[in-house]
Amino acid sequence: MFRWGIIFLVIALIAAALGFSGLAGTAAWVAKGVFIVGVILFLISLFTGRRRG
Predict the structure, then answer these.
(1) Distance (Å) of CA 19 to CA 3, 14, 23, 24, 45
(2) Checking CA distances to 30, which of 1, 11, 13, 45 falls within 20 to 30 Å?
(3) Is the pTM of the predicted complex or chain greater than 0.70?
(4) Structural element, H or E, at residue 20
(5) Largest CA distance in the chain
(6) Domain of residue 14, residue span
């Protein structure tokens, strides 16, 4: 999941450097969303893993 966030972040940076503002904004938004979902899933797995041990 974090890999997808990094991929979209790189796409956003390349698009921003080339001047495609619409594409850069969309890729940055997707990267941010994937990152947030990844962090939430990590925290859920962290808390549920502690209860089993």
Answers:
(1) 24, 9, 9, 8, 39
(2) 45
(3) no
(4) none
(5) 51
(6) 2-52
Question: Could you read off the pLDDT of 1-53 as tens digits, one per residue?
Answer: 667 777 777 887 887 787 777 877 888 888 888 888 888 888 888 888 877 65
What own/partner pairs with CB < 8 Å and gap ≥ 24 does 30-39 have?
Answer: 31/5, 31/6, 31/7, 32/5, 34/1, 34/2, 34/4, 34/5, 34/8, 35/2, 35/5, 37/1, 38/1, 38/2, 38/5
Residue with tokens 């797995």: 45
Name the domain count of the chain. 1
